[in-house]
Amino acid sequence: MIKIINFLKQISDFEQLNDSDRLILVKYNLCSLILVRDSLTFDTTHELCYEDDVDDRYNSMSSNNKAFAERCKSLFMLCYSYELNRLLFNILHTIHSLIDNDPIIVQLLMLSMIFLKGSSCLERQEPILDDSKHVFYLHSKYTDLLFRYLIKQSSFNTAVIKMMHFVEVFMKYQRLSKDFHQEIKSKVDVDNISPFMKSFLHFA
Q1: Domain ranges within the chain, ordered by starting residue
Q2: Is 3 within 8 Å of 106 (Cβ atoms)?
Q3: Is the pTM of this model over 0.85?
Q4: What are the residues facing 48 on neighbouring strands?
Q5: What is the percentage of the chain residues whose pLDDT exceeds 90?
Q6: Which among 41, 102, 100 has a CA at the least distance from the CA of 69?
Q7: Hey, which residues does 49 pair with through a beta bridge?
Q8: What range(s) does the NR LBD domain occupy (predicted)?
Q9: For residue 112, which of 100, 142, 153, 192 is within the disulfide window of CB 3.0 to 4.6 Å?
Q10: Which letter does DSSP use for residue 48 in this model?
């Protein structure tokens, strides 16, 4: 999570937004960015998500890192339903296949998504941005850069198909997020959740 925030701080387009808009965009899009970032280091054989630097994803998959990833997977399966777990990993498999182990695709996709307003499908309505037109422009800008890069790496037709699959998989992720949110509410007393996690999980 911190690595993603640090990544965004290096993007002048993001830093030039006011504090309120940056906070709203991060709060409602951070989970999607984590999903995209994790897909780059996703172990499709063992279905493990490694906590790595994108630039050093091969060297940092140590035994300790693998053990931590296995514990996280076990904890997720213990706390939430097997069905939610399968849906999440199916989404990760799809994104992993679409990005072709290319960190540039991941970064452009993350930048396109951080400026995506209204992507949350949770019950709590997203606040209105102060400069929604500029945020929409930035979303369009990085989506266009992503599309052009995909064309350069393959072909126009392949790029179109990949973009359609990206939209499809994130619609699935939206539905999963809603189910995940409801699962937490049904099992956990929200009043006992820390203020930070309440905000992160959109309970506050």
Answers
A1: 2-40+102-200
A2: no
A3: no
A4: 43
A5: 51
A6: 41
A7: 42
A8: 1-204
A9: 142
A10: E
> What are the distances in angstroms from CA 108 to CA 83, 84, 103?
30, 27, 9
pLDDT score of 168: 96
Q: Which residues pair with 43 in a beta bridge?
A: 48
Contact between 99 and 106 (Cβ < 8 Å): yes
pLDDT in tens, 42-83: 889 988 887 654 444 444 456 667 787 787 778 777 767 778
pLDDT value of residue 57: 47
Q: Which residues contact 79 (CB under 8 A, 6 or more apart)?
A: 187
Give me the helices (H) in the chain, please.
Answer: 2-9, 12-15, 19-40, 63-79, 82-99, 103-114, 132-153, 156-187, 195-200
- d(C-alpha 42, C-alpha 190), whole Å: 30
**What is the rounded distance in angstroms from the CA atom of residue 50 to the CA atom of residue 39?**
9
Provide the sign of the torsion angle of the four alpha carbons 162, 167, 170, 172, taken in this order: negative
Q: What is the CA radius of gyration of the chain?
A: 17
d(CA 115, CA 90): 25
Average pLDDT, the chain: 84
Structure tokens at 201: 């999980």
